[in-house]
Structures are given as C-alpha cells and as structure tokens.
Specification:
Elements: H1 2-70, H2 73-80, H3 86-103, E1 107-114, E2 119-122, H4 135-141, E3 146-147, E4 151-153, E5 156-166, E6 172-181, H5 183-190, E7 201-205, E8 211-214, H6 230-239, H7 255-262, E9 267-274, E10 277-287, E11 294-300, H8 301-304, H9 306-352, H10 367-403, H11 412-429, H12 434-443, H13 456-460, H14 467-474, H15 476-483, H16 491-499, H17 520-535, H18 543-546, H19 555-564, H20 572-583
Antiparallel strand pairs: 1-2, 1-6, 3-5, 4-5, 5-6, 7-8, 7-11, 9-10, 10-11
Helix pairs in contact: 1-9, 9-10, 11-12, 11-17, 12-16, 15-16, 16-17, 17-19, 19-20
Length: 598
Amino acid sequence: MRTSIFLKIFFTFLLVTLLPILGLIAYNDWKDKDILIQANKNTIKGDAERVASNIDDLLLSHKTLVCNIRNNHTLIDYLKGNRISKQKIKNCAIQCLNTLQKLSPYYEGIILLDKGGKERFSTSTAFKYNFSQRDIFKEALKGNIYVSEPSMDGNKSYIYCSAPVKDAEDNAIAVLILATDAKWLYTLIEKEKDRLGKGVVCVLSDKQGVRIAHASDRNLLFKSWIPLPPAVEKELISKNSYGECITEIGSTNYQEVADTLKNTSESIYFKHRLFVNPEINHGFCVALKQKDWKLIYTMPQSTFFYFVNRITLHAIFTTIAVVILLFFISWMISKSLLRPIYKLKTAAVKISEGEFDHPVKTSRKDELGKLVLLFDDMRKRLQSMNNTLKEIHLETIYTLIKICRGFEKEGLIMHLLRTSEYSTVIAKHLGLDTVFIDTIRYSSLLHDIGLVAVPQYIREKADFLTQAELEVLKSHTIYGEQFFSKKPFFQMARDIALHHHENWDGTGYPDGIKNGAIPLAARIVRIADIFDNLTYPTGTCRPELINTYEPCASKTDAMNIILRYSGIHFDPTITNIFKQLVESNLIGNNTGRYTTGN
C-alpha cells in the first residue's frame, strides 16, 4: 500500500514541480550552451584572425623593405650603368642586410637579377635557387611585388620576396629579391600549439591546399590536405618549389577542408576530423590579405565543449538533487498519510482474526483522523456484539451438556469447565492467536460429548469393564467427532473429540497417530484432561482409561506423573509449558472457581 501511495504522490510532485524545473534547467542549459559555443567560436575566430593579421603584417613589411632597398640610389645608379663597381653595390647591399638583421635575425640575403634572370650580385653564396624559372622572378618582371611559399634552397628553407626595378619608362630592368629564413613563419605558427587547450591545431596552407606551416608536426609540411589535380602535383614536384619532401606530396582527403579552402570568404567556421586526433575539430579558416594563403585554426571537440559539458553535468546534478528532494518530500508525506491508514489496516486484520481488544487512536483532526475515530467506534460495537455472541455460545454449550441427564452427579460439567480453563491457559502461553484461544475455550468443553452415545450402564458401571465394554466406551471419540457437522467452524471441536486420547508415541486411540500428526488442540486438551482426572479422582473418567497412571494425592504428584510420560503420551513442548503453569499456580489451584458446584 505504501509503495502504491508513495509512487502516486511522487509522480504527482514530479509532474507538478519537477517537470517545470527540468524545463527551466533544460532551457537555461541550452541557452548557456549556445552562449558558450558562440564564445568559443569567437575565441577561435579571434585567434585565427590574430595570427593571420600577424603574418599579413610581416609579409607587408617584407614587401616594404624590398621596395625601400629597390629605391636605393646606389642601386639605381648601378643599374643605369654609372661608374659604380659591383663590389661597391654588393657592399651597399650587405650594409642594408646588416641593418635588417638588427631588426630581425631571419633576414638572410639580398639578390639582384637582371631581366634575363642572370645574377648580378648576391650577399651570400648559399643561394643555389634557379630564380629565373620561378614565379618569384616572373611575377616581378610583370611589375608585381611577390612573396613566395617556403622553399628549400640548399639545407635551409626560405621565403623570398621580390620586387621589380624599373627604368624611367616604368619598364622592369631587374628583379630585387629579399631572402628570409622560413623559420619566422614556422615559429609564428608553432607558438599557437595548445595555446587555447590541448590539441589546438594551427595550419597555414597555400592556394592549392599544401601545408606550408604547421603548429604540431613539421613532417606534415609540403603535404596536401586534399587531392591535387595530377597536373598541379606534377608541376610542384618538377619545380621542387616547396622543399625536398615535395616528392612525397600526398593528401589527407578531408572533404570538409577541401570545401573550406575553396571558399573565398575571409573567415568561415567549419568542422572536420584530423588524423592527429580521432575527434571532430571545430575551427575557422581565415584568408590572408597579402598572400593567397589560408590559415586554419581548430580545437578538438573535447576542449571546445569542456565548459559546455560542465554546465550539462551541473544541470544533471541539479536535476538529481531535485529528484532526491522530491523523493524525500513524497516519502515524508506518504508516511504521514499512511500512518493512520496502517493503524486502520492493523486493526482490521486483528478484527478479522477475532481480536477486538486493540483500540485505534490518533491525534489527527483532519478527515483521516475522523475516519480513525469512526473505525474505532465500529470496533467497540463489534466487540460488544462479539462478547454477546460468546456468552450466547457458552450458554448454549452449557445447556447442551445439561441435557445429558445424570452427568451432573458425576461432576462432568465441572470436569469439562476445568479442562476448558486449563486448555485456554496453555494455548495463551504457547503464543497462539486469539481466534485459536477462543475456539479451544469452547471446543474443549465438548471433548467428551461422544459419551452420550455410550450406553448408560457402561458409563455408570462400578466394576471394571470387560474388554468388549471398554471398546464400546472408547468409541465415544468416534461418536463425538460424528456429533458435529462438517463445517469449518466445528473443525477444532471435531479434532478434539476424535483425538484427545491419542498418545505422542502413537499408542493411543482411535487412530494411533503420533507426534505432529495429532492436531495441536487435541494435544493440549489431552494433557489438560488427564491432569484434571488425576487431581479430581471423583471425576467421570473410567479407571480403565487412567489405570496407566498411579493414584495421586496432590497436583505435584499429578505433575510428576505427566512429566514421566512426557514424549510418550504427551507433547514434550506442551508438557514443559504446562509444568511452568502448574508451578506458577496458574493451573491446578484447588481454590479455583470450578472445584465445586456446577
């Protein structure tokens, strides 16, 4: 009952209070998630644009420096054919380079090519690059200031920035190239490694999708994100324009990256997988302004959603706490509501078992309290009716016994009453229920009712009976069992009448059953009946039926005889209880109300 009512109360609370709370939590969770996701996006986008802007600034500074060197008067005079030696112009270039190296150690050299691609001078002999076949030379001759992708020249990787040197008619007559160690670009990108958290990746790609800088793994440099057209791949390999590993150019074949790199937007949000980690990565692709490069800045999903997941966990814990609180409140309310109901249930069970002596009380003033009071009033009325019925029942039995003419002078009624009283006391101390106790009180009164079927001359014969007469007398147990109807109400009376002469060891009559096969009520009446016949020898029991036992002058002697036959004629457990009752004067007190009279 408690479980059913508790669940109803709990689910009522759940629907009325928890669902709105969960809805609010879910809404706030979604809202906070959206805010955090957008904040993470803005953070990644801001960092991507910051790195892209730094690269753009450096590229722009390279272009500016090339133009400044190109506009040097000594260089111009040298190109016009004025009498300036090659060494002088070279020394001038070296002086310019030294000035640049004070600003940054990454500036490596200055090279001057004529319009045919022939080197006019170089500040270093380290450059083995055939510039005349590269875009850096071709674009400058077209009048453009051009920055190359990182490429290998000897054992080092360089980025070259070229500018045309023009004559008075604005025609390109030479190409000036500023060589810079590509480490500045690698270092700039690699600084972003794990800056925002574990697994952050920053990659710079050219217009083809080839990685030209990578924050995590330089072994991935000069390898493509996406499948390259065969012609483009062949051209890159043939020119060896990116580096020695260009012959290993390959593809990671990520369609998301390919689609993103094709996009011409300045910055675009996208998700993709990287082979450097198994997670989906969230990031932005930003287009540079000074060069047709794309910067990809990404963060693993576990890092991207770290704080979002914390909010989700917080929402889950909050929900669990609310559920536990509701569970506790529902339990307390159900307990309060069920307390009087349990009292009513217990009282109803007691009443159904024939016990009316358990009042139902409550201090509640509500409807449940009124119901308890009404129930207790009903109990009292039933108790009064039950007591009346018991009195009528008992008087009916007395009347039935008195109908048996001639028994009173033999003291049968007193014997029956004492046997009933002893049996009732034994049943109580065996811890049996009220219904059993009340039933044995009345049923034991009729244990010898079968004697009415025995001829009077046998009942009143002063001498010992013959064997045949004794068998007729023993048949009173069978007659007594047949006296009652087969209805359940008389089951105990039938058991007592039939089996109250059965012995624990199976030597009794009429069926010779033993131990637990003998009904409990019959075992109780058996010891009560014999004790009364031993302590009141003027009773009605024939000497032939008790000749096994020695005559006794006191209840102590009678008790000793019963103890001697414990486990033989009597149930040992009942015998032990009976002994305690006799010693406590609860049984066998000669001042009892059934010692004389009827």
